[in-house]
Every structure is written in C-alpha cells, then in structure tokens.
Design a protein that fits this description.
Length: 130
C-alpha cells in the first residue's frame, strides 16, 4: 500500500493532537469493522468561528493522518464553513489515499460533524435554560 508524502507527514507528525477540557463540542465516531475510533474537540467563539480543535484517534496511519489534516482545515472557519468540508476534500488535500483507506477520511468528516452537532445541541440547551 502506497501513501503520499503528505499522508506520511501527518502520520509521523500529527497536528492538533490532544483534548480540549472545556470544549464547545465533542464528536466521537468509530468503525467497528476496522477498529478505528476518532474523537474531535472544537472550541467555538461568540462569532461561531472555530478557534481551536484537537483530536484523539485510535487507529491506523491513514486514520491519524486524516484526523490531523481535517483539524488543520477547520481552524479559523465558521461552523457553517466547517460543515462544508467533506471527506473528499480531506483526501485530496493529502494527495489521495489508497481505496481501502478511504473510510478513514469519512470518519474524520463524521467526527467533525458530530462535534459541531454537539456544539449546536449544547448551545440550544443553553438558550432554553438561560
């Protein structure tokens, strides 16, 4: 299986690894078939701009690389802009993935979307209680 230089770079030197204790939203997804688990934390400011993002991924090199790249792509974007980032965009920005590893980029997209959904749910609950 051949990986691009960008994929290897993000695997060997992942960006934004960790967790955000007071995250605005957290999304966790997993793929039971391959065993990959991805968790993305986002910090959102009052203008709905993602100011920080961290990830924790248990999985293969492609899962780590796509998580790392996806986090880079959303920092500084609004929630709506971040929702437009697709697994295809993540894959293209890494120079491609072997077909058998494309599901990893889908997990990155799903974890990001889950974190945004969590943020929106928390915000809606806060407005109801406030």
């Amino acid at each position: 299986m051949q990986y691009t230089e960008k994929v290897m770079d993000h695997f060997m030197h992942p960006r934004n690894v960790g967790e955000i204790a007071d995250a605005s939203g957290v999304g966790e997804v997993g793929n039971a078939k391959c065993g990959d688990i991805m968790k993305i934390y986002i910090k959102v400011d009052e203008n709905e701009v993602i100011t920080d993002v961290k990830f924790q991924t248990f999985g293969c090199g492609a899962a780590i690389a796509t998580s790392s790249r996806a986090t880079e792509m959303v920092i500084g974007k609004t929630i709506d802009e971040a929702l437009k980032i697709t697994n295809e965009m993540v894959t293209q920005s890494l120079g491609g993935l072997p077909p058998v590893k494309l599901h990893c980029s889908v997990l990155a997209e799903e974890a990001l979307h889950a974190a945004i959904a969590d943020y929106k749910n928390k915000r809606a609950a806060g407005k109801e209680n406030g």
